[in-house]
Amino acid sequence: MDQGTWDMLLGMTREPTHEEKNNILVPGPSLLRQGDQGEKVKDLQARLKQVGWYDVPVDGVYSDATANGVRGFQRKRWDSRDGRSISAHLTGDRHDPQADAG
Length: 102
Fold this sequence. Notes:
single chain, elongated, mainly alpha
């Protein structure tokens, strides 16, 4: 690459973070969290139930049971233990429910 190209690239970008330089995934903001209520929570609970991570009635309240289901799913899929909602992954990810169970 020539100096002109390098200078142009530098002018169009910012200094990469340590995480970006080292391929470290950093979770984004939570879509849902404990205490939330409503249809999005019901959707999350129903999807967790489909893959075997939620075994109580779907009620639309992000409770301890919902957080435990999210944490279990995250541990199995990404080894993340924060319990924050990953419903975007559940809604967009096509996967084998048997691979996620237990």
